[in-house]
Specification:
single chain; about 70 residues
Length: about 70
């Protein structure tokens, strides 16, 4: 497998993972809005924020190598 094929595979995987992470982040935002109106349990919001934070960190890690390879 040559370097171009490896890069293409990694970019395709990064694109797929970023799409899924954005679904998680968007869903967290929607749930956060809904829950802020419906619950007073701070543990529920804390857990949701933990999920959102983890997804955001994953997205950042995925994008680091892509930014470096594109000269950003």
């Amino acid at each position: 497998m040559n370097k171009t094929e490896v890069c293409e595979e990694r970019c395709a995987l990064a694109h797929f993972l970023n799409n899924q992470i954005n679904v998680i982040l968007g869903t967290c935002d929607l749930l956060s809005q809904m829950l802020s109106e419906q619950t007073t349990d701070p543990q529920v919001m804390d857990r949701l924020l933990t999920i959102r934070s983890a997804a955001s960190a994953m997205g950042d890690e995925i994008n680091k190598p892509l930014s470096r390879s594109q000269g950003a």
